[in-house]
Design a protein that fits this description.
Elements: H1 10-19, H2 21-26, H3 30-45, H4 50-57
Helix pairs in contact: 1-3
Length: 58
Amino acid sequence: MPKPYSNESENEFVARCMGDSEARQDFPNAQQRIAFCYSVWESETKQPSREEGRNAES
């Protein structure tokens, strides 16, 4: 499964993660896969994603 690179932005990582063959196989549903990708970003960088911020405003 993909992990963020040290110089990679959130958007770059999520785009790369969404296209990752293993992530696509494990999460064929795009909504599940994007949730997984944002979760990996948050856990690996210890930074809340911008997506999480949008959900908190709802």
